[in-house]
Amino acid sequence: MSTVSSPVSGRVVGLDGVPDPVFAGAMVGQGTAVDPPRGAMDAVAPLDGIVVSLHPHAFVVVDAEGHGVLTHLGIDTVQLGGEGFEALVGKGDTVERGQPVVRWDPSAVEAAGKSPICPVIALDAGADALSDMVPAGEVRAGDTLFLWS
């Protein structure tokens, strides 16, 4: 069983709260989403593992059980071309839950006309693989979002 933590502080809005049909429709995978406070912050690793994919606006960490978690920093933020994002680790690095991975500013994302909402997706997880999902409310970076069995 893997515990998946929130990569950012903010308000849990669930996938239904993501202004993107691909994420909202769980086409990328099951999970949830967090609307972060505005202002510069670090997005942290949602679980212990290896960074297998790293882009300015998104990263994937895979744990020892093979569970891969995608953290997407905002919606359509790929269109920003990395502007306003700073990677703090490299692809292939081993990270611990809560370790800063990317520094970014949700207010700058919003000022650029994009949503700063952060989907947190359990890649290749079956519909019944996730449990104890936080349905709503405030979370801090590092708080548990869901369990993956």
UniProtKB/TrEMBL annotation:
A GO molecular-function descriptor: kinase activity
Gene3D superfamilies per the UniProt record, alphabetical: Glucose Permease (Domain IIA)
Domain PTS EIIA type-1: 20-124
Gene Ontology CC annotation, any one: cytoplasm
Main location, first listed in the record: cytoplasm
Recorded superkingdom: Bacteria
Keywords, in A-Z order: Kinase, Phosphotransferase system, Sugar transport, Transferase, Transport
UniProt keyword Aminoacyl-tRNA synthetase, yes or no: no
Name of this protein: PTS glucose transporter subunit IIA
A biological-process GO annotation: phosphoenolpyruvate-dependent sugar phosphotransferase system
Subcellular location: Cytoplasm
